[in-house]
Amino acid sequence: MSKHSSCPCDSGKPYEQCCEPYHRSKNAPTCEDLMRSRYSAFVFGLVDYLYETTHPNHRNNNLKEEIASTCKGLAWTKLEVLSVWQGGEKDKVGKVSFRASFVQDGKKGLHVEHSRFRRFIKAWMYVDGKVEG
Ligand SMILES: [Zn+2]
Asked: What's the structural domain count of the chain?
């Protein structure tokens, strides 16, 4: 699979027209865009991006190590956004529910999460997520 043909977030758009600008420093305009770009960052192992898009109040001491070990241990294969609440260009908070498929140690798994986002200065930031199951 070429990383540059289609974006790993399954938007159907090329990576360059989807998550790449956010990975290069552009602020995601909506929390769904941020959520998708964080998923793609997990696929590519962009630990710093994932750290920097976590709300400063929720960056615990081990966050970078936790992100790095998730990136190494899991191969994400598919993303489906299930629902979006607020999180638009004029909102201050937002929620995104999503289902992400992965392979770990040769076994398929499913990660269902209800994520919360909050605007910090101009940028959307990930606050936390409730994982189902
Ligand atoms: Zn994308």
From this structure: 1
